[in-house]
């Protein structure tokens, strides 16, 4: 099969652009020893359209696709295989990389690009691990997040956290406590979960109508701002 450039539409470009934030997110999660690249199949000669931490391979936007990338694209065209596979390779300076590559498909499963992640393992392992651990010098480096298997747990954990925060806030008096707790949950999007109104009314000892009244007031305040 002869390789040829992929004919792109504006929709293809927009779909590929939406993956840029994913590249930033992955690089931010794994840290500075991780290079994340998005290739566009619109031009194999200048396929790199997004790259984070490109110093690991010396590449920049406008760099060409790799020979392995072309092989994976060709294989996708033949088999439709998208699933990423990890592998080890070496950069031009000899650094050991653990990599994975996934074909990005657009409309009608047309291959429009690739997402590539390259972890540089040539650095001392303690240095790599340090970038994965919280910075103890930053008080807010650890964020509370509730991982649950059902929505009720998520709501109850968020409710407990909101109650604790409001009870520590000296600016909130007893009369305003229930409204302040409800506002905290509303601001955090917890009322998008269907059971929230019922669980909040039960936990705070107020009627559902009172909760609905609070919500109407919050929405009205938002609409006037």
UniProtKB/TrEMBL annotation:
PANTHER family: TRANSCRIPTIONAL REGULATOR DAUR. Residues 16-122 form the YheO-like domain. Residues 159-216 form the Transcriptional regulator DauR-like HTH domain. Pfam families: HTH_22, PAS_6. It comes from the Bacteria. This is PAS domain-containing protein.
């Amino acid at each position: 099969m002869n390789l040829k450039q992929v004919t792109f539409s504006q929709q293809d470009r927009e779909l590929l652009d939406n993956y840029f934030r994913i590249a930033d997110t992955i690089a931010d999660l794994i840290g500075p020893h991780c290079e994340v690249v998005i290739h566009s199949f619109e031009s194999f000669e200048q396929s790199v359209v997004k790259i984070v931490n490109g110093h690991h391979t010396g590449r920049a936007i406008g760099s060409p696709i790799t020979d392995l990338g072309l092989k994976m694209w060709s294989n996708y065209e033949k088999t439709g295989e998208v699933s990423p596979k990890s592998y080890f390779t070496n950069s031009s300076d000899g650094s050991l990389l653990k990599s994975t590559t996934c074909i990005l498909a657009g409309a009608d499963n047309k291959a429009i690009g690739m997402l590539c992640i390259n972890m540089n393992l040539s650095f001392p392992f303690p240095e790599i691990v340090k970038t994965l651990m919280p910075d103890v010098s930053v008080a807010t480096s650890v964020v509370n997040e509730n991982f649950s298997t059902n929505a009720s747990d998520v709501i109850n954990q968020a409710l407990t956290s909101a109650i604790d925060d409001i009870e520590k806030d000296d600016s909130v008096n007893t009369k305003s406590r229930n409204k302040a707790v409800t506002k905290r949950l509303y601001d955090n999007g917890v009322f998008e979960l269907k059971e929230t109104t019922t669980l909040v009314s039960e936990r705070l000892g107020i009627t559902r109508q009172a909760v609905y009244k609070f919500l109407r007031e919050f929405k009205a305040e938002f609409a006037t701002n």
